[in-house]
Design the sequence.
């Protein structure tokens, strides 16, 4: 019988995407998936180290895995991802039950390492970056009606935000050629994927690496316009795609060209997640974010003007070293000024090898807690008002799949990325379809809508669809 594996993923979308690559290389090696760790011959934990809490999760998970190692069966445990990259050998010492430590660039080596273990080799650590010859593992459409998927455009990060461990765990920036990106998006769409999210640590700083030799780019003078060109090219060459998203952009690369692309391309949803981190110039400077509050507010205002109805969400850190009450109030006021409809809010946690370590960690835990709470309240309030304002409106929803197909309940995302639950007419599976929905109710973080069976999607769907005979414009 085929050996079985399970992958547990923590952290960002990059990690979710890497887990797919891990699964693919394991399938290539004859492993089969299982949902039950007790049945697995190989347990892979794909880790995150961006905040302290994420790392603690790994340690407590490893504790729960111990009994599996103590059974008669040979069970292997591999730790991949950013904690693996950051800790390397140290991880084997801290947790001797680990068989493999594998950095994000070393996923292709997993089959070989497993074979070596089978041959009696000792636990191994592989955490080399592929700086000289960057590899971008191609994501294959999974089949089986996958509606959304990721495509990597760059990896690593050359920003030096003082709080952030990513440059250590993901290495310096490496960019993928445009042809490879567009080709992969086209292949995804041909396989039935309707929404692609382009992935990169500073995704909108992307440029085509083949142009680097011809005209070296100055990082000090961000162009970012190449990213806008990439979006346009995908829109042109992959017309069957319904939505094209990207994450995470950096505010200093939100160029006029990118703003113009948002005005031009209906393919881009009317929502951007744009991490701001703080609303205080003093803190932004100490974070080395390389923009001011004013620049952020002006650029986003321009973006909203270019793409009416566009909403913004963000990431915010509270309690960064030296953050005063006044600094924090600046953050609250920026949240109101920009009108974020949602935000991921974090308490600052000191990370190994980051420049901010030397600033100390001087905001007391209780103050961080209190600021986090106040921030949540403002953000939640804005989210509530926003979601309520949508009741009674019609929205175009990309249906991602069933919540409970037995009672015709599905969910998807609006053109502004709000989660919309809906009930489909009897006998219709709208998965993968753009459907017109009237919003009937706002929940705390999502919407409930009624699918208007009589209407056709606004954008005709060209792809012939097998499962959905009744709804397509081409039916
Ligand atoms: N402490 C708290 N939050 C952090 N983030 C990154 N590093 C830290 C840290 N040391 C947050 C930022 C980033 C998100 C992915 O995680 O807000 O945008």
Sequence:
């Amino acid at each position: 019988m085929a050996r079985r594996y399970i992958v547990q993923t923590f952290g960002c979308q990059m990690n979710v995407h890497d887990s797919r690559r891990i699964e693919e290389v394991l399938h290539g090696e004859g492993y089969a998936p299982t949902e039950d760790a007790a049945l697995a011959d190989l347990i892979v934990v794909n880790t995150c180290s961006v905040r302290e809490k994420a790392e603690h999760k790994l340690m407590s998970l490893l504790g729960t895995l111990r009994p599996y190692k103590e059974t008669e069966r040979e069970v292997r445990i591999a730790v991949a991802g950013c904690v693996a990259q950051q800790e390397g050998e140290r991880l084997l010492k801290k947790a001797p039950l680990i068989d493999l430590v594998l950095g994000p660039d070393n996923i292709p080596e997993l089959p070989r390492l497993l074979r070596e273990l089978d041959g009696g080799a000792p636990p191994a650590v592989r955490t080399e970056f592929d700086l000289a010859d960057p590899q971008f593992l191609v994501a294959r459409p999974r089949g089986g009606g996958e509606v959304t998927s990721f495509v990597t455009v760059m990896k690593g990060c050359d920003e030096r935000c003082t709080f952030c461990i990513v440059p250590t765990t993901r290495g310096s920036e490496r960019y993928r050629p445009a042809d490879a990106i567009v080709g992969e998006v086209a292949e995804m769409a041909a396989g039935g994927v309707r929404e692609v999210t382009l992935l990169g640590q500073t995704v909108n700083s992307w440029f085509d690496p083949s142009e680097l030799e011809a005209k070296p780019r100055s990082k000090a003078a961000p162009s970012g316009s190449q990213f806008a060109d990439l979006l346009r090219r995908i829109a042109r060459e992959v017309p069957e795609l319904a939505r094209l998203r990207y994450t995470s952009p950096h505010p200093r690369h939100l160029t006029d060209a990118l703003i113009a692309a948002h005005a031009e391309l209906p393919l881009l949803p009317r929502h951007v997640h744009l991490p701001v981190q703080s609303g205080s110039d003093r803190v932004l400077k100490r974070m080395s974010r390389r923009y001011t509050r004013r620049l952020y507010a002006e650029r986003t205002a321009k973006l909203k003007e270019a793409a009416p109805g566009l909403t913004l969400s963000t990431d915010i850190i509270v309690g960064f070293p030296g953050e005063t009450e006044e600094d924090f109030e600046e953050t609250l006021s920026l949240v109101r000024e920009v009108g974020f409809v949602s935000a991921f809010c974090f308490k600052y946690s000191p990370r190994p090898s980051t420049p901010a370590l030397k600033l100390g960690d001087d905001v007391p835990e209780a103050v961080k807690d209190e600021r986090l709470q106040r921030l949540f309240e403002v953000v939640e309030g804005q989210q509530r008002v926003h979601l309520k304002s949508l009741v009674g409106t019609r929205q175009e929803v990309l249906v991602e799949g069933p919540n409970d197909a037995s009672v015709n309940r599905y969910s998807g995302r609006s053109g502004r990325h709000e989660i919309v639950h809906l009930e489909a007419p009897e006998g219709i599976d709208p998965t993968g379809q753009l459907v017109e929905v009237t919003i009937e109710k706002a929940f705390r973080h999502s919407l409930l809508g009624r699918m208007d069976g009589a209407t056709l999607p606004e954008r005709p769907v060209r792809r012939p669809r097998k499962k959905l005979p009744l709804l397509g414009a081409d039916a």
User: Anything to note?
Assistant: The longest strand covers residues 394-404. Residues 47 and 81 are 5 Å apart (CA to CA). Residues 50-51, 163-164, 275, 277, 315, 317, 346, 348-349, 351 surround 5'-deoxyadenosine (CB under 6 Å). The two ends are 44 Å apart (CA to CA).
